Description:
This protein is about 30% helix and about 25% strand. The chain has helices at about 50-65, 70-80, 160-165, 180-190, 200-210, 250-255, 265-275, 310-320, 330-340, 365-380, and strands at about 5-15, 25-30, 35-45, 95-100, 105-110, 120, 125, 130-135, 140-150, 155-160, 220-230, 235-240, 260-265, 280-285, 295, 305, 340-345, 385-390.
Amino acid sequence: MQxxxxxxxxxxxxxxxxxxxxxxxxxxxxxxxxxxxxxxLSDGLGSGVKANILSSMTASMALRFIASDMDFxxxxxxxxxALPVCQVRKISYATFTIVDxxxxxxxxIIEMDNPKTIFIRDNQLLPLVYREVESPKWSQRKILFxxxxxxxxxxIILLSDGITQSGMGSHGYPFGWGEKGCQELALSTIKRKPYxxxxxxxxxxxxxALSKEPLMKSGDDMTCAVMYFRRPxxxxxxxxxxFAKDKDGEYASMLDDFDGTKVVCGGTTADIVARELGxxxxxxxxxxxxxxxxxxxxxxxxxVTEGILTLTEANKILKHHxxxxxxxxxxxxxxxxxxNDVIQFVxxxxxxxxxxxxxxxxxxxxxxxIIKTLSNTLRDKxxxxxxxxxx
Length: 391
């Protein structure tokens, strides 16, 4: 029997031109049950702070109700009472799409007034079968339910109407880019790049929507969230020498025998691995960057970097989701961590005297604390499965 899938989730969004805050909100969290993830995209009426408050309230309530397994029609009625219909436009103050995924295969999708969910399987658009539910209290608002068994390489794409209506009123897109335009772009991109990440696909769809707008200035809040179901990808990262020198051979073999992506962070760690595996180690001086030492090369190891400085910078990149496109060792490490799902950190506990130098920057933490921080960022922000082993 095959194990549970991993769900990679990322979102790209921009606020309406002239607004400092986006009126769309996307939230995701693991539910109390293991291997279950709930995500919500809500679009607040209008733009700016008021829209953001409405969509944040809607998304927060939806997450709480779904996680509690409360009857959703009753939950929706509570949400509708909190978010009445606009008397002028006769539409909800906030829309929502909810995706509730149990990673052994079952997923349900609940929609109210957002553009239709895009579901892609085997490079084809998979039509979802919906059941329409109408609340006796709120007959003017329809809720759509769909259930499906997800498989490896399935993708779910959620859009706010700022994406589908981009370019509306222009000569090329008088009625907007439309759901069909988004679907066609997603399909052609996945066909060309079958393993494209959720981050790259969401960024690409947002960029294409913006390109339809006059002067590339967004006329509305725009959000694209992508969910990518796949078999877990594994990575091991070794950093720091083992406490006992007689463990060096076991340490290097642990890396060599690993089935997945292999990373070494730290000069002393790299020297141990190269020596114990009988391989040469070379430094690529052309790969250094401001404040970040260059990469090294060991045959059979996917990435070899300096330790504390590079790990600290990689965590900053991941925490703020900025700088991934840079060509430096920290960005390369951050991208590798993002592209893998089950990440095992192996931390040597021998004191490295170089890191006791009081002249080093204050923000450089002890190796173990850096790894804890990085592990938490990957787990909490990107839903990665992480573990730490000390040796």
